[in-house]
Amino acid sequence: MMVDLQLTNTKLVERARTILMRLTGIDHESASELLAQADGHVKTALVMSAHHCSKEEARQRLDRAHGMVRTAMEQTDLEGGL
């Protein structure tokens, strides 16, 4: 599923919420809040949800995973010094 979206209009924002709901099992309101906390970055929001971590930590995980969401989501806390 393509999750690297630029949220430039209402339709894409709703698509991002739907992706978050589908992949994480959260409701619409929670998806909206998570997306806002992640500054509109779906990849960051997914990693934040998977690891219950801050936006900064999620971005660090994504950086170490070279932007690959699945890899960042599967990282254990021991990998990469976290």
* Span between termini: 27 Å
- Rg on CA atoms, Å: 12 Å
**Which second-level CATH architecture applies?**
Orthogonal Bundle
| SSE class | mainly alpha
How many beta-strand runs? 0
Largest sheet: none
Mean pLDDT, as a whole number?
91
* CATH class division: Mainly Alpha
Q: Return the domain count.
A: 1
* CATH fold naming: Helicase, Ruva Protein, domain 3
Number of helices: 5
From the spread of the alpha carbons, the general shape counts as globular
Write a structural description.
With 82 residues, the protein is mainly alpha-helical. The chain has one domain: Helicase, Ruva Protein, domain 3. Helices cover 62% and strands 0% of the residues. It has five helices and no strands. Helix 1 packs across helix 2. The longest helix is centred in the first third of the chain and has 15 residues. It is globular. The mean pLDDT is 91.
Write the layout of secondary structure elements.
Elements: H1 10-24, H2 28-37, H3 42-51, H4 55-64, H5 69-74
